[in-house]
Amino acid sequence: MFIVTAEQMRAVDEHTIHKLGIPAASLMENAGRSIAEEVIRLCREDDANRRSEQHGCWNKNGKRAHTGPGDRPAHGGDIIADPALVMEQPGDQQWYMLIGKGNNGGDGLVAARHLVEAGLGVTLVYADAPDALRGEAAVQRDAAAQLGIPALVHGREAVDFSRCTGIVDALLGTGSRGAPRGSYAALIAAANDSGKPVVSADVPSGLNADTGEVYEPCIQARVTVCLALLKRGLVQYPGASAAGRIVVRSIGIPARLAPEHGPSVRLLTEEVLRSALRVDTGRLRAPDGHKGTYGHVLLAAGSLPMSGAGLLSAKAALRAGCGLATWALPAALLPHVIGTVPELMLAAAADGDSGEWNAASADAVLRLAESRDVLATGPGLGRFKGDTDWLRRLWQHSDRPLVIDADALNMLADAGPTAPRDWGKRSAATILTPHPGEMGRLLGMSTPEVQRDRIEHAARYAREQGVTLVLKGARTVIATPSGEAYINTTGHAGMATGGAGDVLTGIIAGLLAQGLSAEQAAAFGVFLHGQAGERAALLRGDPASLLAGDIVDAL
Ligand SMILES: NC(=O)C1=CN([C@@H]2O[C@H](COP(=O)(O)OP(=O)(O)OC[C@H]3O[C@@H](n4cnc5c(N)ncnc54)[C@H](O)[C@@H]3O)[C@@H](O)[C@H]2O)[C@H](O)CC1
Ligand SMILES: [K+]
């Protein structure tokens, strides 16, 4: 499923209308009908829930215990009214349609016609004077007027939401700029305060369709009927929360036009992993495979106060399926971790008996890397004197795929102008796995600034720096040097726990060691990490009690 910006959507719309010759009126008709169908689906769901609460008329497997009028063809015999637009007691439903002056409003007017056709009560609530509508929206305004659909104009007549059963938000769509103003703001606030279910056309009004930032006020939707292509603002928080259930409805615009008019950003699903990224999600093992077949990870990580980070990361690499893993750690720590993960090989790095890393160990790490397939560093490293030079030696003299996380990212940020301008020149791939704070330090901006447009910041950094970038957080963004981006949807809030990032680093390194490319290992690693977190949270029952180790065990 492609994810687009408002500008990209507009360009795809233009292409569809002016190059393919699909009339804008058809698109709007399809859009409005889709919205009406989702309103009716919501009404049916709520009716069914009410009935099951009242009469328990659903048997144990959730099927209706008896056939209701809705189950029989509405006209008896084989003639069936449009099944998507039939309701049992439509008359009970009174829906207020909030109509903006743009094409989003046009969609709402089309939906109004279809809901009236299905027998629901409908009242139009114009945010602006109806004569402010132009083009296709004006055509729909006139059709609604000719059909005698009741209409109120905000500011002229009182709008009492207590009289309605639901609200369609067709105020602002991809043409919205900044915080809602005037009557738009008033209607959004009143709709939210009414406590009635809101179905939003395309995007909740008050949401930045590109970044997911919510303005004040912003519609809190029960359902968002996203038209044609998924908008970026719906897959990043807090926008994703304001949207409620997101239903992407085709309206006749070919999805494959999206990458022709902007960057290729997709929802990361197992199907995308298999098709676009060509990952063998079945993770088949060759019958004649041996440890060497599946690669050897070297992890330079851990320090006295954070030895566990190294352990979690190294164990996760093994769980991700690499054949061998060596954990390089400060010499003083080694005796204390012997046998904790018997499958793990350990290598002492000179530490002057401090249990901390020191810059002199860079060459030892490079020597170890020569007989390993992947070098990962960062988890639990801590900061130490000369650490940026230590990291610089690793990236300058190692020809292994490199995974840089946690404190190693902070060292990179401190390297400032001496940091590589283009990692793409390295002979092997580089993957960075920052959380938003580390990303902010790399970009020289605050965390909130990073979070305000996650996809854009990640995609630009990856493209400019020639790295594969994993910007962690809810809906992790995976961005590639060639400009593609993927938005992960697996995961669980319970994963917000110390060490979860160390586990992800290990998983990605473990997949790289098995020969996956940087973008395959990053995308599949994030996907698996999230799935393991979901499973671990389920096993624990109480997600708040989740530990990073549970994620490793659930892998
Ligand atoms: N072929 C198509 O383009 C299709 C479009 N679809 C729907 O159309 C909207 C995009 O329509 P557009 O007219 O470009 O923008 P809006 O309807 O969102 O218009 C908003 C309207 O309101 C004014 N405005 C903008 N920002 C604010 C604000 N912050 N406060 C108050 N008022 C504001 C501005 O003047 C605009 O005119 C898209 O989302 C779809 O819903 C159809 O899907 C079919 C194809
Ligand atoms: K809307």
From TrEMBL:
HAMAP family: NADHX_dehydratase (MF_01965), NADHX_epimerase (MF_01966). Pfam families: Carb_kinase (PF01256), YjeF_N (PF03853). Residues 50-76 are annotated as: Disordered. InterPro entries: Carbohydrate_kinase_pred_CS, CARKD, Nnr, Ribokinase-like, YjeF_N_dom, YjeF_N_dom_sf. K(+) binds at residues 104, 169, 205. SUPFAM superfamilies: Ribokinase-like (SSF53613), YjeF N-terminal domain-like (SSF64153). Catalyzes the dehydration of the S-form of NAD(P)HX at the expense of ADP, which is converted to AMP. Together with NAD(P)HX epimerase, which catalyzes the epimerization of the S- and R-forms, the enzyme allows the repair of both epimers of NAD(P)HX, a damaged form of NAD(P)H that is a result of enzymatic or heat-dependent hydration. Homotetramer. This is Bifunctional NAD(P)H-hydrate repair enzyme. AMP binds at residues 472-476, 501. Its EC number is 4.2.1.136, 5.1.99.6. Belongs to the NnrD/CARKD family. Keywords: ATP-binding, Isomerase, Lyase, Metal-binding, Multifunctional enzyme, NAD, NADP, Nucleotide-binding, Potassium. Binds 1 potassium ion per subunit. Its cofactor is K(+); Mg(2+). Residues 274-555 form the YjeF C-terminal domain. It comes from the Bacteria. CDD domains: YXKO-related. Residues 9-259 form the YjeF N-terminal domain. (6S)-NADPHX binds at residues 103-107, 173-179, 184, 202, 309, 380, 435, 502.
